[in-house]
């Protein structure tokens, strides 16, 4: 009898576990996980290349509803979208979901960057980055940004009849990052880093199969070379700091200088390297895409171009003898920034993102199992007719009163505690660049307007334009 009771007591938890699993699996979102590892990754990547990713996702929504399971980049995932999804992603704390990128991104950028850190570690590293990137600190760098933009135009635009905008915008944003954030001057090292950086980006959204012929493998190798170069640069900055260099001369030096009450370095060398690589990607790719599509949209809309030019010429008139732009000048560029925001709405550089469930989560009537990936897409709310009437129309007046836009419907820089710390840096970079482009050049497009996603929007021919110089005021 005792044996029967013992067996019965032993079987109870097993029975409860099995019934719980059966009940949970029945509450999973509809959909298919597809083939192991690959899943629907290639389908999504092909759709992005063809610029039909939103249509591909809409087809899933019509078939499965607003929540569905999917397998992306080697992990079972749940796809969610909409205002509620955006709010869920940006307001949930680390006890519910955490930042965890797909393996390809985390392997290339590193596991100690902001995209991977949670809790106290995330706050510690973020606070360190914000100490350099906050508006009060960046005011003194407007002049340096001005000089970098004018130098770029002198080297790559003046005297030319035709240019390809996207490659040049990538060069410009990379040079600005290297000079202002990393203190890395022009030369062989910067050129090598630029090449490795391009290869590094190529495999960030890829199936994580590490074989010699894959983009993922090439990106890993490029990331390792970039990391070695950055390690050497950090060593040089550490020596400069010991010799009395200003802690504010660049971001790397600033991070090295931050110490606690025990005089210990707050940010480790590994964290500096991984976050420098993250900033290279975030500050380079997104800003170059924004500037490229601004040039494209201004070419297609003479009225918008004329209004931007008028605003910028008013500022230029008050800058005799080639004086540098100031923080106060940027504050006057209100219309230009509204044009930039509308460009971000129509052509978001970031397609979507990933999180990880740290426990079983009830969402929208379904279960998101622990350790599953959460895939969300920002741009689908930005093209929602119920939120933005006539969403395909380019209309900067939408941003005259930002408070009229429902929360979590337009989030080009993220939201909540994970809002992009480089937001203000991107704003300065964009406004200074557009100021000199429109006051010094006119242009017209030389090719069709088609673009693909890789994963950022990329004009298929690099957006070639015919340019003509304008007379300086």
From TrEMBL:
<protein>
    <submittedName>
        <fullName>Cytochrome P450 716B1-like</fullName>
    </submittedName>
</protein>
<keyword id="KW-0732">Signal</keyword>
<dbReference type="GO" id="GO:0016020">
    <property type="term" value="C:membrane"/>
</dbReference>
<dbReference type="InterPro" id="IPR001128">
    <property type="entry name" value="Cyt_P450"/>
</dbReference>
<dbReference type="GO" id="GO:0020037">
    <property type="term" value="F:heme binding"/>
</dbReference>
<keyword id="KW-0503">Monooxygenase</keyword>
<dbReference type="Pfam" id="PF00067">
    <property type="entry name" value="p450"/>
</dbReference>
<keyword id="KW-0408">Iron</keyword>
<dbReference type="GO" id="GO:0004497">
    <property type="term" value="F:monooxygenase activity"/>
</dbReference>
<dbReference type="InterPro" id="IPR017972">
    <property type="entry name" value="Cyt_P450_CS"/>
</dbReference>
<keyword id="KW-0560">Oxidoreductase</keyword>
<dbReference type="GO" id="GO:0016705">
    <property type="term" value="F:oxidoreductase activity, acting on paired donors, with incorporation or reduction of molecular oxygen"/>
</dbReference>
<keyword id="KW-0479">Metal-binding</keyword>
<feature type="binding site" description="axial binding residue">
    <location>
        <position position="420"/>
    </location>
    <ligand>
        <name>heme</name>
    </ligand>
</feature>
<keyword id="KW-0472">Membrane</keyword>
<dbReference type="InterPro" id="IPR002401">
    <property type="entry name" value="Cyt_P450_E_grp-I"/>
</dbReference>
<dbReference type="GO" id="GO:0005506">
    <property type="term" value="F:iron ion binding"/>
</dbReference>
<comment type="similarity">
    <text>Belongs to the cytochrome P450 family.</text>
</comment>
<keyword id="KW-0812">Transmembrane</keyword>
<feature type="signal peptide">
    <location>
        <begin position="1"/>
        <end position="26"/>
    </location>
</feature>
<dbReference type="GO" id="GO:0016125">
    <property type="term" value="P:sterol metabolic process"/>
</dbReference>
<dbReference type="InterPro" id="IPR036396">
    <property type="entry name" value="Cyt_P450_sf"/>
</dbReference>
<keyword id="KW-0349">Heme</keyword>
<keyword id="KW-1133">Transmembrane helix</keyword>
